[in-house]
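ZP: hey, is the S-adenosylmethionine complex queued? I don't see it on the tracker
AM: it wasn't, my bad. submitting now with these inputs:
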Amino acid sequence: MSEIKDTVALSSQWMAAVRAIENQRPDGLFSDPIAAQLAGQEIIQKIAPSVQEYEDKGAPIVIVRTRFFDDFLMSVADSIRQVVILGAGMDTRAFRLSWFPNTHLYELEQPDVLKFKASRLGDAQAKCHRHPIEADLREPWSDLLLVKGYQPTVPTVWLLEGLLYYLTDKKVSELLTTITELSCPGSLLGADLINTEFLGSTETLSQHWKFGCDEPLDFFSNYGWQAEAIQPGEEGANFGRYTAKVYPRDVIGIKRGFLVKAKYS
Ligand code: SAM
């Protein structure tokens, strides 16, 4: 399989590289043994200085985010048998979390990324029924999910990790509308967001960020989801590792990220 070239698609391997480095730590916040083969040594080496920089600042955001959503998913795994990860990239939760074996986990992602992932997975065995689905989430995608056996009448947990900011406001709105149409009461959702202070960057990856949200609770409420949002570093989202100062929410002009858990009822 040829390399992934597009920057946004490539970010999936960068995330895997961060997790591969974390996997080497004896005190790591999670275990991700196949992250290294998905990222590749070259990318791990390239990313390592930046991972150290975030660690030194007390802001290992990707690591904290991964653990936060691992905990979220495992907290509902007893009662949920349908999981949908949108923009899954090199996510390995199908392989590394303790699912009930009759759980169905759908990974939607751009075709090139999923093809690359398949070429790197080797003989890794999923712990549930894993369904990779090639999709551009800017286009209609419900039918792609339904045809693979997704049941809209069964409670689902959705995960949108590292995804929404790569879409325009309009595409985010369409995505949330589709998710809601496909969800029955009792469904759950995890997502991370950045606020609008982050937009307008010229840096390699963040120049592709298009969607920011300053009021996550109101945003999800518009689609019928009751959300709670926490900033990385706050109580419940630091895991003893995110030690950088977190500004109270009423301080304006601050770049903020939010980790969101929401319920549809
Ligand atoms: N969720 C994974 C994680 O946290 O490791 C990957 C996050 S990565 C930063 C962003 C991912 O979103 C990439 O894999 C990219 O291909 C995917 N993505 C962005 N726009 C997309 C689109 N329109 N359709 C499908 N996937 C998309």
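AM: back. The chain has a mean pLDDT of 96.
ZP: great, adding it to the tracker
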